[in-house]
Design brief:
The chain has about 260 residues and is α/β, with parallel strands linked by helices. The chain has two domains: about 220 residues, P-loop containing nucleotide triphosphate hydrolases (Rossmann fold); about 30 residues, no CATH class. The chain is built from nine helices and nine strands. Strand 8 and strand 9 form a beta hairpin. The two termini are about 35 Å apart. The mean pLDDT is about 90.
Length: about 260
């Protein structure tokens, strides 16, 4: 397994001899209750908290700080969307024609083309989220770190946003997301899930395998999404053979 980031023997905050590997070209979701260490871990990976002697990057992938993008919902520092997207490219010294092409492409990917001339103050929370994400990935980083990006989104918005992230991952970007709940997890495909509790990984692996252990998740203060919880209970009584993420999938399983 190719690894893009290795954290080894981390001693910081709640972490004691902590180790985690981030597989190349994967979508990794780190979840846990408050004070579990998930946000701190993302800051360590981003280099915001300087413990680089404990973090090893794949030098063929992460060649400089520009290859790492960290995003947390925050105030956008310009009054229009187009200015927000152009600024990081202008800082790289790109010419105007190249900037225009890259802005157009990223706006299409994040489904914000119609918003390019809009005022930031007129955007919804979800629109601001997509604009903010576009601004940190417009320069095509190799590692994307997202700190609880979906906290204010509706279920439909979460589903679409996680789909956008999956498209980015399919193009070669390695993505690490921290989540305060498990609601976002059900919208991912083949994601790797790490459950933290007070700086310790208490469960990890394939998303469905981790979600199957509902007693452990409840113990660390996490609640299963409704459809997953229902699937686990019905599976226990052999009424379904797998976890279903959607009502339609549940109906089909019960019908069979």
């Amino acid at each position: 397994m190719d690894v893009v980031v290795l954290v080894d023997n981390l001693m910081l905050g709640p972490f004691t001899k902590f180790k985690i590997e981030i597989p190349l070209n994967s979508m990794v979701i780190i979840t846990g209750s408050n004070n579990s260490g998930k946000s701190l871990l993302l800051k360590v990976l981003a280099g915001i908290v300087n413990v680089k002697n404990k973090v090893v990057y794949n030098k063929e992938i992460i060649k400089s700080d520009k290859d790492i993008a960290y995003f947390k919902n925050s105030v956008l520092n310009f009054d229009t969307v187009i200015k927000v997207l152009r600024y990081p490219l202008e800082c790289l010294g790109l010419d105007d024609d190249k900037i225009s092409v890259l802005v157009k492409d990223i706006a299409k990917d994040l489904k914000i083309t119609r918003l390019l001339d809009s005022k930031i103050k007129n955007l919804s929370n979800y629109e601001k989220l997509r604009v903010g994400l576009a601004s940190v990935i417009v320069s095509n980083p190799k590692l994307l770190l997202l700190d609880d990006p979906c906290i204010y989104l509706s279920p439909l918005e979460k589903e679409e946003f996680m789909g956008i992230l999956e498209q980015l991952r399919s193009r070669g970007m390695t993505i690490v997301i921290s989540c305060s709940s498990l609601e976002e997890v059900v919208y991912t495909i083949n994601s790797i899930l790490y459950v933290l509790d007070k700086g310790t990984i208490v469960s990890s692996g394939d998303m469905l395998d981790v979600l199957s252990n509902d007693s452990l998740l409840n113990k660390v203060g996490l609640e299963l999404p409704f459809m997953v919880d229902l699937s686990v209970k019905l599976k226990y009584y052999n009424l379904v053979s797998k976890i279903n993420m959607s009502p339609l999938g549940m109906v089909m399983s019960l019908w069979k």
